[in-house]
Structure formats: C-alpha cells, structure tokens
Amino acid sequence: MKQLIADRALLPGGWRNNVLLEWDDHGILTRVRPDSDAAAVAVAGTVLPGIANLHSHAFQRAMAGLTEYRSDPKDSFWSWRTLMYKFAGKLSPADLKAIALQLYIEMLQAGYTSVCEFHYLHHDADGKPYADPAENMVCLIEAAQEAGIGLTLLPVMYQYSGFGAQAPHIGQARFVNSPEWIIGALQALQAAHPQHAGLRYGVAPHSLRAVSPQSLQQLLTLLRQWDAQAPVHIHIAEQEKEVEDCVAALGARPVAWLLEHAEVDRRWCLVHATHMTTAETEKLARSGAVAGICPTTEANLGDGIFNGVAYAGAQGTWGIGSDSHISTSVSEELRLYEYSQRLLHRQRNMLAGGEGASVGGYLYRQALRGGAIASGRQVAGLETGQRADLLVLDPQHADLGGKHGDQLLDSFVFCQHGQTPVRDVMAGGHWVVRDHKHGRQEQSAAAYARTMKKLLD
Ligand SMILES: [Zn+2]
After folding, report:
1. Same domain, 137 and 27
2. What pTM did the predictor assign?
3. Looking at the domain assignment, is residue 322 inside a domain?
4. Which of 11, 69, 241, 323 has minimal CB crowding within 10 Å?
C-alpha cells in the first residue's frame, strides 16, 4: 500500500495532525485523512506540500558565480546577457543534461518538487538544428526523470533581437525558430515522450522584444488548436529599457500591451512583471494570470522591485522561480521577496493575509498556489487528485523546535542557521531525498564537476 501518516501536515484547510496520505501508481493522492489511527508508516516531522519552481533556465546553473566581476563601467542586465550568450555558445547536449541533473537534484533537496523549464537553447553552436530538433529538450526531460522532479517544459519562441523585428544577433543563433517549429517540436515530443502527471508541455514566447505581434498571435492560435489549456509563459517587463522600447514600438507598456492584445488568463505566467504602473498591476491581478517573481535573480541582475504590496492588495496570483539559479533555495526566494518590500516601504511584515497573519504562511501558500497554476499540473497541495509532492521538515532542527502552526513556516522562510531543515522529499509518490541525500547526488556531482572543468578550461 502506498501510504504514510504524517505527524503534522499543512493541508489546504490548515494544520492537521496524524494525517493519512495515500497515493496511486501514478503518484496521485487518492486519500488525505487527518486524525487517522491507521497503521501506516509514520513520518516524524512537519510535512509541507512541495512547491513548483515556475521559472528556470537550467543551463544558467553552470554560470552561477562566473559573472560577479565588473566587465563594463555600467554593468547591467545587458552586459550580463553578453556573458551568458558566450557561455551558452559552448554547451553540448551532454553538458546541458549534466547541468540540469545536478540542478534538479539541488532543487529537490531545497523543497521544489516541480520545475517549469523556459528553454531556448534549441540548436547547435552554429545555429543549425540538431538531427532531432528537440534533442536538448529530450536532455531536460531525461534529467528531470532521473532526478525525479516534475517538469513543465516550455520551448521558447525567439525570433528578433529587439522591437520592430530587428535581426537576431550572432549570439542568439541557437535560439531562433518560428511558431511552426515550436508546434512541430511539441507534436514530436508528445509522440516520443507523452505527457503524464509528472510531465506537461506548454510554450514560451520569449518576450515582446523577441517576437512580433503577428508571430505571437500565430503561435497562440496554433497552440490552442493543439492544447486549449497548455500554459504560456513570457518574460514581460524585466528592464526599464525594455519598457521604453515597447512604448516606442507598440505604443504601450509591455504588461498593458499584452493584456490588451492577448487572452491573458490563468493559463498565462508573466515572468518579471517588474515594471508596472498601478493600473497594470491591478489589471494583471484581475486577469487571473500568474506573476512569476524571481527575487534572487532579479536582485542579482539589478532589475528592480516587483510591486508586491499593491499586487497582493489586488489579490494577484504569484509564484517564485529560481531563474538563473544563483540560489535554489525556496526559503531564500520567499524571504528576499518580502525583504524587497520592507526595504522599499521601510516597514515590516508587508506580505501577509491580514492583521495577525503570518508572513511566512502567506508567502508559502501563495507560492504553492501560483506555482501549481503556472505549471499547468496537479501540484496544488496535499489533497485528493493532486500529485503526492511533499517535503518533511526535520523536527530536531534548531530553528523549528517548540514551534507550532505557521510559526514553522515563518521559521522556515526567515531563519537560516546551519543545514536546511528540508530532511526528506517525495515527488510523485517516490522518496527522492531521504535524510538530505538524493540517491544520484554523488554520481551527478562527479559528472557536473567534469562538465565544469571542460567548460572553464
Ligand atoms: Zn528568464
């Protein structure tokens, strides 16, 4: 029988004790019953639903720590991007797989049980399609499968280097494709690697600067014929220059333009909706789309601060992504998101459900909900019909001892002393991390070290 009893667990209705969880062969929860006296295997500790990481460029894991020097008198997102293109130019499919496997193991150890992969490294170093055009995507699928993490794979449509259909740069040759290419790739992937509870396909028009209004429309039309519910992710307003260029080219700011010209709803995730007016913030919240917030990357790249307080006030949906992977810590992303709002407004406890409400509790529940919607998969928490994705916090951890209810989430998010309290992790009904260890971590670390040595020599 696939079941366990959790000492205490965070359910959609709140904290409960002695929770019986049962799941089927597909890793889907079939029963969640609190106050159970069933004779199942007991799990000591606090069980939390696993979070979906809604934005990842796996290959960038290997660049973490390599761009923290001054390359330009005015270093910015744009000079970082030049370094990133140089690095991306060197990667083979085998390198990508080694990096992705290492990354996905690290994500699981931190408490992410799913990832949305915003994948644009499609072709070989000269920009020529591989014999199997989806070769790099297959590497990501295999890496996710070997690590045991749920995957929403979003092939990126990339066409131009800037607004007004400017020709792509040489550094973008590996990315360039068309709506037909994307849909063809999805059809081929679905035939060779059909979707299941742990694997979902969608698309990602890279940004308004990298596609045209016409090709965006064409992609969406073809996608909806293929799968009416498939998720659509887009980078939307990460940089102020991008906003200015969008106004010059399209006559509106990016979020406003997209809300006006596309059927934006809960199937959409707008990543880096960093630069919005109050009107855009409220309208995005009303659309039901997910705002994809990537606090450590947005800080690292000097993007700016998301309008979190106004967005929360308008009941907007959001989730977190580790994006460039300078960090793969769930708690660090959530903590930095709240801290960005404190620094901006010079107050404390900015993101909470109401007076007396826990900030950690609000952040964790919202990131769970938004991540699940953005992933387009059944990963919304510990209830029947959702995937058995969970983590167990070590009750012996110094940060957690003697704490109850949402104090546990406040401590998980805001305290950081010693090893992570994430002791065990289950994804799709399988224990993938036990006592902090992933079964493939040593093998993966060795392969990753070899890859890094090759890339940096
Ligand atoms: Zn991104």
Report:
1. no
2. 0.97
3. yes
4. 69
